[in-house]
Design goal:
InterPro entries: EamA_dom, EmrE-like
Largest sheet: none
Distance between the termini: 26 Å
Helix content: over 70%
Order of helices and strands: HHHHHHHHHHHH
Pfam families: EamA (PF00892)
Structural class: mainly alpha
Protein name: EamA family transporter
Family: Belongs to the EamA transporter family.
Strand content: under 5%
Radius of gyration: 18 Å
Number of helices: 12
Number of strands: 0
Organism: Antrihabitans spumae
Length: 295
Amino acid sequence: MKIPAPALAVSAMLAIQLGAALSTHLFDALTPAGAAWLRLSIAAALLMAITRPAIRSIPRRTLLSTVLLGTATGLMTLMFMEAIARIPLGTAVAIEFLGPLGVAAIRSHRRLALIWPALGLVGVVGLTQPWLGELDVAGLLFALAAAVGWGSYIMLTHRVGSQLDGFGGLAISLSVGAVVIAPFGIANAVGGLTPTLAAQSLGLAILVPLLPFTLELLALRRMPIAAFGTLMALEPGIATVLGLAILTQIPNPLQIAGIVLVISAGIGAQQANTSMERQTPGKNSRNEGLEPLFP
């Protein structure tokens, strides 16, 4: 029985956010930075062993793009881990989502497109409720830094994906990401590691990023890019539900409204870009044009 492509995309999102929620249980022993480094390192080692990319045969410019992608990936992972150690998972993902929304506005080249990141920002204000005086400023700043990393990740993934086939580029970028954040996490990861934590970290590395990347790749081969991007706009909502179920992070009504606004902004931004793509001649809606807005 063939699994429907939308189910694969949703499963990828579930894997990403489930991995994030479960990673919080490693923070006491390994710290957020240590958990981030260990997860990236294991995933990179597994992919490098499987793909064995011929690094010497990669053109210098392409290799530079891959290194930049790895840097963005590592810093995004580190900042996000530090964020969810301080603020609820759903809130962190919603704030991080401002990165893709900003990329969408830049790509559209239309002033009207600014309404979507603005709507997302209103939703984030509803989530964080700064007027209550309970906002964790450090958590907010880490999430905003992760948003910048996610936006950079999107643009660099498009560049690397058009230059390298297969999984070799991912293996190299994950390796670079692990090296970049090693100064922040390697000491804590090694110092707090036990056989049980090592097994858990291995499972989490498979859960994120290996499993979701594979699921996304399979989904994209069988569904239009626009539909995929629209589905990915649901990710803040999925993060909120998993934060409630696993971490008992209960949002209040205003925070739920904020999540709805962020999701609406994501769907609106993707649909706006889809409309622009249809107006551009010579583009195939399934395999060309705009790459997924929310990878």
